[in-house]
Amino acid sequence: MHQRIGIVGVPPLAIIEAITREGDILIDLDEPQVQASLDQSASRIPRVYCAILRTVVLNCMHLALDRVYIDVGPGKCDCALHTAEVLDDMLRVPVIRTRNQDVHAFGYPLCISRIPLLEKFRRITKGVQSVQPYPVLARCEPECGFWGVPPRDFSLLSLFPDTTHIFGWTRCMENKTPANFDLERAFDPNIPTVFFSQSFCAKAALAKHLAAKHPRGIAIDCDVSAGSSTRAKIEAFLELSGLEPGNRGGD
Fold it and tell me: In this structure, which of 7, 109, 115, 235 has its CB flanked by the most CB atoms within 10 Å?
């Protein structure tokens, strides 16, 4: 009988390979999997933790799982290590801490392709569950950049043109090297770039630092969902950069 395996962050490729070889069901606990209020997680994890880790806990409160793998190394964050301790006490299944130090580069064709940004993120986050290389895609000339982690609220990604290149930890995700800090901090100074982080995420410090160094960068953060203020900031930034929010790159 196939087991239901929860994953948090990007576990090492060897673990993903073993799970898929057994034919088990992979469940990405970083993404909303249940229809329940995130406030329910407050009994287990502080509200000042990022919405992603609060989502992990909420999922674990409602899902029937046989095992959980959580990356607690430099490819995730210290808060994930603390969350692993919470899950270990909360669940009656093994919670296995991993430290992804994989260095084999798979490339990041999705990050630099001409595909709607929301769809790029969907494919990249889904790709964590696979050990297969990505298909070859044509590179597009970028008009703007999105640096950072996948937002909990993917809807804000629809504000960007298809010609948006992805940087930051999301690029590391596609490359399957989540601890590659040199790749994470890279950006293109020639294109306007939104440096995004979840509220209360440690990566907000790096986002703000890089945005200050970028000649046309802005640091944006949001918590559970992208409200009107966050959307207005992104739309205004794109308009001031000569881009229409939601524009499809001139199509």
Answer: 7
